[in-house]
Design goal:
Chains A, B: Homodimer. Two copies of one chain form a homodimer. By secondary structure, the first copy, chain A, is an alpha/beta fold. The first copy, chain A, folds into three domains: 7-308, Rossmann fold (3-Layer(aba) Sandwich), CATH 3.40.50.970; 343-532, Thiamin diphosphate (ThDP)-binding fold, Pyr/PP domains (Rossmann fold), CATH 3.40.50; 546-668, Rossmann fold, CATH 3.40.50. Chain A is built from 25 helices and 20 strands. The longest helix of chain A has 32 residues, at 292-323. Chain A is elongated and about 90 Å long. The N and C termini of chain A lie far apart (63 Å). At the A-B interface, helix 6, helix 7, helix 8, helix 14 and helix 15 of A face helix 6, helix 7, helix 8, helix 14 and helix 15 of B.
């Protein structure tokens, strides 16, 4: 492709630069430097983007990810020009409370593919978007029917490249030979601490070659439009390698402070803005100006062709649906974000007569049962497949066909020992749309390695699932480096996050039921290494409420509430207490978040007034006071040893629980007991 | 160096292999594969290690880090042979509860330099050890007096190389030209998911060359002792580059399952162990056998020379101390792990008449005041120096002298945008000894990126400090991607972790006082971006207790407890309440962990019976119930906007607090109120 650029293109680029600078100036807050350097590349990419601003969810759109999310004024400028629901007035409210142009791009805004800002995430999300596209294309494209051929473009800066999460995702992207991924590295040699020389002197191009990427270089990203276009064209032809285009730019191009870190994160001075406008041929006294010919260019060269491609795509889908009615219906269902009817019937149910099984194994059975019903399910593990039990029997690995190890229609991803990369990639897969349900396995303790991406899943509302096995000291010999303590407290404190810790088979089924049904909330499912019995009183119907009474008793002396592997021990503790004529109700609370959605009436029936509540869980007690008056937990690190011995040494036994229950009853004997659920505000 | 190896060397290597296999077999749990492949390299390294098993803390010892910590049976074998306090009986108790040989190596065991197991950490710690050595040498070595010239050796596997944290640390190590760091990559091509081909096909050697490392290759690490020795010798000569030796080995070398992932994480079958012993010329029916000539070799070639080097080093130190009495005394003080007398007098104190200042700025003043007194202080930032305010005015950067940007005696580290790497490096610096006090800055929200390393700091007891600025929605326009919510709840739930959130200058001084004095507990110091007033009632003496009564009032209706930036708003709320004749006590609780160390009597004086307690903090409420009956917090994500507007919209104002206080008082009016500190068990 050889593209001709006109004076209007240059005018458009100046417009983008100044619109971005004006946003930051109006807010007197933000990052003008990167937009000034990156405007040419943004313009050139946009000119070839498949997009329809009226249908930002179109599954075959090209995706653009701004991994250096602090440059968001640039993205808002692009979305405005290309017809998204973002007016000049919106741009003027940049970084103001309630604005559609917040300080970093947020996923819920049409046209923003992923929330970025925390560095390294966007480029890793882009790997996930590219994986999803490759999978979708390999699954549904047919000879003469190309339903998916979109690209994922990403901008990233030095900061993104320094973050380990991007190293993990980039190494995997090279392994997977994702030719649909094109990343433009804004090589401006400036970070907040000054020149990149102070900390970042590695050879980035060589590193990406080592990962198996195609690496190109544009020497003058500020002005050489033809070179940028040529590099992107070359990248598109690199079908079996992702491409990194190192594009040397000047941060704050045109500003009096160009090339220094002072243009990175603060508004330009008014005089500087004025000289910039004069330099670019604009009226220095006007702001937020878009010449009509720029709107016209975007309309005729970007929006109209995009709408036409969108319409053609819909026609192809209709013809496809005639020839392949089942697949066509499946695509339409997925694009509508609906699960197949009756899928949940495949979730297994258990009775107390069924044998004791580790919940990680019960999770495997769920995945095995539902995988054929849910083609949108795409799972994997961070190199713990045989421990996490995340792979179903017939699974085909998602691998480049040339590897001989699988193909792109495969739905099982070998993430390698890359927890953070995995979680960020899962966010990208989810953000692709088409109802993708991404799950990934690791030990619960190492979900913490992925905290940065897990937080963004919750903030963005990606309904991904972390299959988090080995969820306590119950893992035994591996010891305290592998035994989570603070982990559930951490993620329960994260807004919009389900944290399931099922106690048996029915609860595992319930956890998956809620996690897969939920459209905007991620879920951690914490699973045991050790076998657990199927409990009397458990049911999928109860457990989907997040909490329920497992065993009721009249005139109870105490409510014992527990989760996961401690629930069955608690049941035994209640039996022990009954021998002393102490009546204990038992509540199972597998997920706080889901329980909190239930009616107040229901919640108070689970935790009624008048009965002291004691929680039992071999993890940090923090957070339990929301439901329990007293907590028996583990506010210390664990120990290496056989699991039963570790449990015993820390008194997580029927006796240990019963003793504490008795003390709790005695403590509250002469006191008025109100449910912790009652709150003054 | 050209080393000759004898039959006894081969016997020693077989002994190491079998001792390791026997440990795993006795426990029927553990990882035999890596020790079998790595025993030759371990033996060869040990033969040139400077060590004194009777003085494992000797500051000029060579360090060995087992980054692939699951191979710990190997390390225990080496420590046993080289005379550390680890008997054959101890080896027999491998992975048993209370054993000195836990499932992964733990820092508190003599000879274990850092706790490893969570992958990627050890090699990153090794970078920290190498930084500390370079700094110590540059600070104290004098012509004719070499007090520090030790090496850091590390083993790492494919898993460590896939983890992003190791990428971050390795990139920085290359930048810093750490010639004292020698890493041996166990290229055995096997991970838990099987062949590394499934996920890890990058060119590791090229990647490390891109980082600026010297890269060597040993083709047969199983048997070619001369090649291993030669590579290590060459690595030692690489004075201005760290070295990665890619050593191709066979996992489970000698086992019937050699080269497969089934030898990775499970004991060998009894028959396999027997054939292995026969193959290596040992009696197949005996276990834990060490031929006397192997003990003799370790004694004469490793222990005795090490003790001699230790004695010589002490003589050098004595002579050095005569010539440089101040420096000599300083070294002795540091090696003893003592801070200088009176250092704490440099901590600034404030009165309410002093002006309002952001606590991040107050932190800068502390660092400025104490830096000249504490040569062991070595700080930095993950590319947020100008935001974290972590650099004192006269600071010299820790940089390779050839960069022209600093030197190795510099004590300010430009970590780049590498939070996880920074935290893991800080652990290594701390583990070096010599009383190093490492601190590192980032935004509070991005301490979460470093969770894996922060957890290991707490587990290992490294007294490092995270200078965590921008600690709430008070950061304003950057918005919810940057505003912490769950972060304090997360780290407060982590055992052995101080989490300070000081409210004014005196509390900032107190936070540093406790954090720097503490020898075995890391500290997060959460600091505001926005200005905060100096409070009536605050003092360093009070704040060092972790919590105290800021304003007492008789016959109080309520206790309001708060931290950081909300404390002054709470003071204003109390004034507002006073207008309605409501009496509010005010408690400041800057660090839960430190407060929990105080006497029960003191704690109950702070939170007495009979007065309902309400907490106020613009972060997740989880965890506050330990002290407060009710909590006003933020269990949702924040928003992008001007900080005062964000505060107001979420009602963190005197009015918002007062209204909730009134509701709390009304709620508890007719109820018996006991302090949350009372517990039945």
């Amino acid at each position: 492709m050889s593209q001709q650029f006109t004076e209007v293109d240059k005018l458009a680029i100046s417009t983008i630069r100044l619109l971005s600078v004006d946003q930051v100036a109006a807010a007197n807050s933000g990052h003008p430097g990167a937009p000034l350097g990156l405007a040419p590349a943004a313009h050139i990419i946009w000119k070839q983007m498949k997009l329809n601003p009226s249908h930002p969810e179109w599954v075959n759109r090209d995706r653009f990810v701004l991994s250096n999310g602090h440059a968001c004024a640039l993205l808002y400028s692009m979305l405005h020009l290309s017809g998204y629901d973002l007016s000049i007035e919106d741009l003027k409210s940049f970084r103001q409370l309630g604005s559609k142009c917040p300080g970093h791009p947020e996923y819920e805004l049409p046209g923003v593919e992923v929330t970025t800002g925390p560095l390294g995430q966007g480029i890793s999300n882009a790997v996930g978007l590219a994986i999803a596209q490759a999978n979708f294309a390999a699954t549904y494209n047919k000879p003469d029917y190309t339903l998916s051929d979109s690209y994922t473009f990403a901008f990233l800066g030095d900061g993104c490249l320094q973050e380990g999460v991007s190293s993990e995702a980039s190494s995997l992207a090279g392994h997977l030979k994702l030719g649909n991924l094109i990343a433009l590295y804004d090589d401006n040699q400036i970070t907040i601490d000054g020149d990149t020389n102070v900390s970042f002197t590695e050879d980035v191009e060589k590193r990406y070659e080592a990962y198996g990427w195609e690496v190109l270089h544009v020497a003058n990203g500020n002005e050489d439009l033809a070179a940028i276009a040529q590099a992107i064209s070359q990248a598109k032809q690199s079908k079996d390698k992702p491409t990194l285009i190192k594009m040397t730019t000047t941060i704050g191009f045109g500003s009096l402070q160009a090339g220094t870190h002072s243009v990175h994160g603060a508004a330009l001075k008014p005089d500087d803005v004025k000289q910039l406008k004069t330099k670019f041929g604009f009226n220095p006294d006007q702001s937020f100006v878009v010449p009509q010919e720029v709107y016209d260019l975007y309309n005729t060269q970007i929006i109209q062709p995009g709408v036409q491609q969108f319409n053609e795509w819909n026609q192809v889908l209709e013809k496809y649906s005639e020839k392949y009615p089942d697949l066509g219906a499946e695509i339409k269902r997925r694009v509508a974000g609906e699960l197949p009817q009756d899928w949940a019937k495949a979730l297994p149910r258990y009775t107390p007569q069924d044998s004791a099984v580790a919940t990680r194994k019960l999770s495997e059975i769920v995945l095995q049962n539902i995988q054929s019903l849910l083609p949108e399910m795409i799972g994997g593990s961070a190199d713990l497949t045989s421990s996490n039990l995340t792979r179903w029997k017939e699974a085909v690995d998602f691998q480049p066909p040339s590897s001989g190890l699988g193909d792109y229609a495969g739905r099982y991803i070998r993430y390698g020992v890359r927890e953070h990369g995995m979680a960020a990639i899962m966010n990208g897969i989810s953000a692709f749309g088409a109802n993708y349900k991404a799950y990934g396995g690791t030990f619960l303790n190492f979900v913490s390695y992925a905290s940065g991406a897990v937080r963004l899943a919750a903030l963005s509302g990606h309904p991904v699932i972390y299959v988090a096995t080995h969820d306590s000291i119950g893992l035994g010999e591996d010891g305290p480096t592998h035994q989570p303590i603070e982990t559930l407290a951490h993620f329960r404190a994260l807004p919009n996050m389900q944290v399931w810790r099922p106690a048996d088979g029915n609860e595992v089924s319930a956890a998956y039921h809620v996690a897969l049904t939920n459209k905007h909330t991620p879920a951690i499912i914490a699973l045991s290494r050790q076998n657990l019995p199927q409990l009397e009183g458990s049911s999928v119907e109860n457990a989907v409420k997040g909490g329920y009474v497992l065993q009721e008793v009249e005139n109870a002396d105490i409510t014992l509430v527990s989760t996961g592997s401690e629930l069955s021990i608690t049941v035994d503790a209640a039996k022990k207490l009954a021998e002393s004529n102490i009546k204990a109700r038992i509540v199972s609370l597998p997920d706080f978040h889901t329980f909190d959605q239930q009616s107040e009436e229901y919640q108070l029936a689970v935790f009624p007034d008048g009965v002291p509540v004691m929680s039992i869980e071999v993890l940090a007690t923090s957070g339990w006071a929301k439901y329990a008056h007293e907590s028996f937990g583990l506010d210390r690190f664990g120990a290496s040893g056989k699991a039963p011995e570790v449990y015993k040494s820390l008194e997580f036994t029927p006796e240990g629980i019963a003793t504490r229950a008795e003390k709790t009853i005695a403590f509250y004997k002469d006191k008025q007991v109100i449910s912790p659920l009652h709150k003054p505000f």
